[in-house]
Amino acid sequence: MVKPPKALRVFLMYTCKVLLLFIILALIAGCSKSSARSSPESSGQQKKGMFALKKLEEDVEKLVKEFEKDYIAVKAPPAGGAGGQGAQSGGEDQSKQGQNKGRSEGQSQQSKGGQQGAGQQGASQQKGSSQQPDWAKYEKMVFLIHDEWNEFREQAMQQGAQMDMITTFNEKLNEVTKMLTKQDLYGGLLAANDLYYRTVAFESLFESGPAVSAKRTLYYLRDAAYRALSDQNEEASASMMKAQEEWKMGKTRLKDGVTANKVEFSLKELKEAIEVKDPNLIKMKYQIAEKNIKEAEKNFQKK
């Protein structure tokens, strides 16, 4: 058998190598297509997880605001309102006035009737001032969060959540629940706000967007305001400083300069209000700062 010329053999060997390379590339492309075919399922799981996280975050936010409403009603009630210690002292004053009036008008039946009416009015106002928060309502809200956490936890782990994130959130949720048993309004408020912070941490599993910085700022300014209203001045100042530092990093990514400046100035004014230690001033400056942060958060999400 006659061998082909050397040049032809070299050509054939080269051709075989090229064909082999094409085969390998084709196999790689096939694997890529197979992976692409599986990506819709992965994408679907991610969307499901994001939706569950959003719902969880919204319900934790509602819990924070419910605690906040009852807490501020005690610590910084509206001027002239029938809330907090003012209502109780007002009821006592009216009761005393009724007793004095009864003594000055003698022991007539009419005087006794007036005294009894004034005393009942004072007692009624005292009862209103000591009214407890609706703990049954809180229990329903917290149970809903427990249920949502039960559904979201597995999705978070599938997305790569570390065990310390899972453990920390669960412990904080248990702490909120224990505050219901103790009927501790202030403790529940702080724990619910901490739970909000832990919820925001899960966003890094799905999309670590700039809105996270706004949410962290919101957490810190809330913590500062709540602690200031409870005369924890050192802790309030520390949280206020963290809020300003967090926003300093976050505002650089916000294209809306007007909103960015509004947030910055409102944080500064809240810090000053905390230093003044006036409850109503703290309440108002906090509410303005919160409003500005919420506006910034919406602008971040539009990107």
UniProtKB/TrEMBL annotation:
Record field: compositional bias (Gly residues): 80-89
Full protein name: Lipoprotein
Region (Disordered): 76-133
Record field: compositional bias (Low complexity): 121-132
PROSITE patterns: PROKAR_LIPOPROTEIN (PS51257)
Species annotation: Fervidicola ferrireducens
Domain of life from the UniProt record: Bacteria
